Amino acid sequence: MTLAGDPRWSEALGHLPDYLGSHVRVSLSALALGLAISLPLAISVRRHPFLRGTLLGIAGVVQTVPGLALLALFYPLLLALASLSLNWFGAGFSAFGFLPAVLALALYSMLPVLRNTVTGLNGIDPALTEAAQGVGMTPRQSLVMVELPLALPVIMAGIRTSAVWVIGTATLSTPIGQTSLGNYIFAGLQTQNWVLVIFGCVAAAVLALAVDQFLALIEAGIRQRSRPRMLAGVLGIAALVIATLVPSLARSGTRVMVGAKTFTEQYVLAALMSQRLQAAGLATSTRQGLGSSVIYDALASGDIDVYVDYSGTLWANQFHRSEILPREQLLTELKATLAKSNITLLGELGFANAYALVMPRAKAESLGIRSAADLAARAGNMTIAGDYEFFSRPEWAGLQKAYGLSFKAQRVMQPDFMYAAVNSGEVDVIAGYTSDGLIAKYDLVVLDDPRHAIPPYDAIMLLSPKRAGDEKLRGALQPLLGKIDLPLMREANLRAAGNDATSSPDSVARWMWERIGK
Questions:
Q1: 383-386 β-sheet, strand order
Q2: With the C-alpha atoms ordered 418, 424, 426, 431, is the resulting torsion angle positive or negative?
Q3: From residue 258, how far is each of 81, 252, 295 by CA, in Å?
């Protein structure tokens, strides 16, 4: 199939207005905030060596923090502040998506601007400032009319560097709920859809290069005192902003926000829900690649409207309950607990996706390992891999306590990659998902859990408080409840890992609906 006929490319293009517009919006806001903070600071400390060194040192330390960690740090901080604001003043704010991304990216943008502004101002010939004072200029007039114009080319070079950094780092804002070109990259990596990964990387690179070139025109115009060059650069940036923001804003409005976590199954289920909502005449958007606690908090606060979670995840992680209940009792208790937060448990999809210890069938049979209890005696010489959350979750602590598991090494991997790693022998055991079709693909075996250290994990559909009474939304999603059994979900996950024209989440979701409809 040609590239033009590959539906993955058309699906990627279909998301471009939303993703690109959101990326430009958050990058522009962060850069503007960073400039508003760093320029006055640089001007105020330029003649004070101690303050200047301290400020640049702090900015340098911030720059050494990995971008994803800095972005993730702001979410819990803002969540706590929002809670305090609600308790003290009766009004809160959203700690999800845009605000933490803007604040983190603004901090990330400051070092080049601070450094270049200080360098540019301190590099001016003292004779020029003395001459300005000699003709009667005040220090403020000298700064505005002499020093800043002379330092502006150097400052613009710092702004160029800052802009490129911000645009590149903004792709990492997806896990905290900010839509960006990173949505392509995260979704592509999770589903092994390299079309999306390439599309997202190229789009982000083209955007950064375009902004850099327009700013370079402005910088050259300032250096050469060429108004046409400066005007060309300003108009280029203005045209770029308008071209990217207008289509995105035109698509905004009252939309049902569908959430998804960070693994293949969630992307497929989010696509399936979006398609059913759109078929009912409801406009939708998606927030993908979210962590378990982030996505639940986003639902409770109304930042997303619907998503699929798992009963055991909520029970053990969100509500910190350690007792293992029978399936029906757990669902009953969970429904009542969710209702206290006005969250609606709409129903079960019909399958369970539990964490489980998984290893190659041939290796397990040769070592006589059938259960986690059998594994415990040999774990000291083995390596285990899990996803980004597993080793910090109560389920892992429960498995260690129940079976005395102690492995030689633990490795954290992207979910889909760890299946290939255990198949190739790079690791011995993984914390897999029971509904993943890759278990059958690689001839792996799920080890028994005779002591029931892991709770039941029924897939359940949750609605936010503001959507509890939305009958149209309920009616659109109702046909999915009880219709997705474990074999169907495993086959869907396997198809999504195929990396061909039919493996995108949208394509797999359409295939699932055809099966459900029959």
A1: 409-412, 383-386, 429-433, 355-360, 444-446
A2: positive
A3: 25, 14, 10
What domains, with CATH codes, occur in the chain?
Answer: 7-250 (1.10.3720.10), 256-354+456-517 (3.40.190.10), 355-446 (3.40.190.120)
Task: Yes or no: say if 155 and 145 are a contact pair by the CB < 8 Å rule.
Answer: no
Q: Are 146 and 233 spatial neighbours (Cβ–Cβ below 8 Å)? A: no
Q: How far apart are CA 391 and CA 326, in angstroms?
A: 24
DSSP string, 10-50: HHHHHHHHHHHHHHHHHHHHHHHHHHHHHHHHHHHHTT-HH
Angle at 468 between CA 465 and CA 470, to 5 degrees: 130
DSSP codes, 263-318: SHHHHHHHHHHHHHHHHTT--EEEE-S--HHHHHHHHHHTSS-EEEEEHHHIIIII
Tell how many helices (H) and how many strands (E) occur in the chain. 22, 10
Residue 406, burial from CB neighbour count under 10 angstroms (0-12, 13-18, 19+): exposed
Q: Is the dihedral of CA 489, 494, 495, 501 positive or negative?
A: positive
In this prediction the pTM is 0.80
pLDDT in tens for each of the 518 residues of the chain? 444 456 677 777 878 888 888 899 899 999 999 999 999 999 988 888 888 888 888 888 888 887 777 887 887 788 778 778 777 877 767 777 788 889 999 998 888 899 998 888 888 888 888 887 888 888 888 887 888 888 888 898 899 999 999 999 999 888 888 888 988 888 887 777 778 889 999 999 999 999 999 988 888 888 888 888 888 888 888 888 887 777 666 555 578 899 998 888 999 999 999 999 999 999 888 888 887 778 898 898 888 999 999 998 898 888 888 787 888 898 999 999 999 989 999 999 999 988 899 999 999 999 999 999 999 999 999 999 998 888 988 889 889 999 999 999 999 988 778 888 999 999 999 998 889 888 888 999 999 999 988 888 899 999 999 998 889 999 999 999 999 999 999 999 888 877 666 778 888 999 999 998 75
